[in-house]
Design a protein that fits this description.
single chain, Deoxyribonuclease I, Chain A, 7 helices, 31% strand
């Protein structure tokens, strides 16, 4: 793994539980040309795969049992692929008003998931600002005790001064009000803005790393969640972002079925 100082280091994000795997959710900004890279990410055997900066054509040609794509440009949008025996649906709350946010329901696991690629809708509606609007709109969707918000947020606390009133720290507080916690920060005990592991490298340069990709899960799911960020020395050959691999283990205990 490449740390923020550009030096190579081995990263171990502690595993909270060793229970059997229920679902593997991966989010990866593939930096376009997904078809040439798909075997690399599919080797991780995701149940649900979120792809930022992917083309509509490649999502349609994926052969996945469940496939959704949204974007203003056919070559660059947000795609979601579902595999295995899980039952996936696009929530009826979906609206194109907030491009690059996809609300997905995993019905057999009673999970609600909002896929994120924080992008630019307009000058005043960009990156963390548009994410605030999307979270406000999907607030009822995320009110479930089994919710996930995951993807490329394109934001970090270090830029709070640029987005006063709608900053990344404000967004984290908003998500915490919905009982959604960052898995990375829960496992590492690092503070927002003080991350030692980057998920994005500007121009793929090891000295220009930032933490921009996040997985937030409901408090009820947190003890069943494990996050892995693969080796940057390998994945920077494929994209300027590293994948987030979110494993949910034995989450049937947190379903509340029959409560």
């Amino acid at each position: 793994m490449i740390a923020r100082n550009g030096k190579s280091k081995t990263v171990h994000i502690p595993c909270i539980t060793a229970e059997p795997l229920t679902m593997r959710i991966i989010s990866w900004n593939c930096n376009m040309a997904y078809a040439a890279k798909q075997q690399d990410i599919l080797a991780f055997q995701p149940d649900l795969l979120l792809l930022q900066e992917c083309s509509e054509k490649h999502i349609k040609a994926s052969g996945a049992p469940f496939a959704q794509w949204i974007g203003n440009h056919p070559h660059k949008g947000l795609g979601v692929l579902g595999f295995g025996t899980h039952r996936y649906t696009l929530s009826p709350l979906y609206t194109p008003e907030f491009p690059w946010f996809l609300p997905i329901q995993v019905e057999d696991q009673q999970l609600t998931l909002l896929g994120v690629w924080a992008h630019v809708k307009a000058r005043q509606e960009r990156y963390v600002r548009i994410t605030h609007q999307a979270i406000d709109y999907y607030r009822t969707f995320l009110a479930s005790e089994r919710s996930i918000v995951i993807g490329d947020f394109n934001s970090n606390t270090i830029w709070d001064a640029l987005h006063r009133g709608r900053s990344h720290s404000d967004l984290v507080k908003k998500l915490e009000q919905l009982q959604l916690k960052s898995v990375y920060h829960a496992q590492t005990q690092e503070l927002q803005g003080k991350e030692t592991i980057s998920t994005f490298y500007l121009y793929r340069h090891p000295d220009k790393g930032y933490h921009l990709d996040y997985a937030f899960v409901s408090s009820r799911l947190l003890e069943h969640a494990r996050l892995t960020i693969p080796d940057g020395n390998v994945w920077l050959k494929r994209s300027d972002h590293l994948p987030l691999i979110l494993d949910l283990q034995n989450i049937s205990q947190s379903r509340g079925i029959g409560d």
